[in-house]
Amino acid sequence: MLSDENGKTKLRPGKRNCKHIAKHLKAFQELDPSMTLDDIIDLGIEIAGDIRNYFKTKGDNTAFRKTVNIGGETVRVRAVLNRNRRLRTVFVEKE
Amino acid sequence: MLKISWKLDNEDGPDPVDPTGELYLSSGVSGLIFEEYTYLDSWFDALADGFLAAKKGDPGIMEILEEPDALKFEPLGHRGVRIAYKDQKLEIRDTDRALCILRQSVRTFLSEFGGDGDILKNRLLIRLKDFSEKEFRSVYNAEPEKNSDMNSELRVA
Predict the structure, then answer these.
(1) Which residues contact A14 (CB under 8 A, 6 or more apart)?
(2) B143 pLDDT band (50/70/90 cuts)?
(3) Which of A58, B52, B74, B88 could form a disulfide with B82 if both were Cys (CB 3.0 to 4.6 A apart)?
(4) Cα B77 to Cα B154: distance, rounded to the nearest angstrom
(5) For testing the chain A interface, which of B8, B17, B23, B125 should be mutated: the one with the most A CBs within 10 Å?
């Protein structure tokens, strides 16, 4: 896990990434209606900040995934970082 | 015939690292596939892999790393292919022709960026450049021309 706030700040998504991530917010809100865009970005940063969650690399983009509990349901969440280690996406994986 | 339309999010200029935008696929046979606020580099990469597999007669499930749903390719009869994404479906009669159209669309997409310097910032774009030029050289035995339609908002190939 990243141990300092500066490390996590580096993973924060840019404006384009946020527009994309917002598309996936609805799936999180179906599990927990109180979740916000900031919440899922924080979740994505937490997942991508832990090398133990590494899943795969495609091009320059690195995917991480972790099984988490959201609103009482166990789901697998994927987070992807771009080559600049900014959060490119975060979403609930389908079964 | 396959029709590929896309619109790059150019609000702050083209971004070769995160080329986001929207994409439409349609055909004269039936169907439409559409996705918005997506990563066009990953989409073109998945489409290239899918059509290349279909050309060999192989079915394929092509993951788009940033989307929960995959693109599914199912060969149909003689040279055709059915593509499914979420609840959307599209049928193409001629996979070879569709590959040519895809390659043209990829060339137009890549021309949005600031030349090879920008393309080198994204390994998917490098792979797409290779994909788009291979067939062009084999079919036309020439280098691809620069895109002349730089002003239209929605690119159509």
Answers:
(1) A86, B18
(2) very low
(3) B74
(4) 32
(5) B17
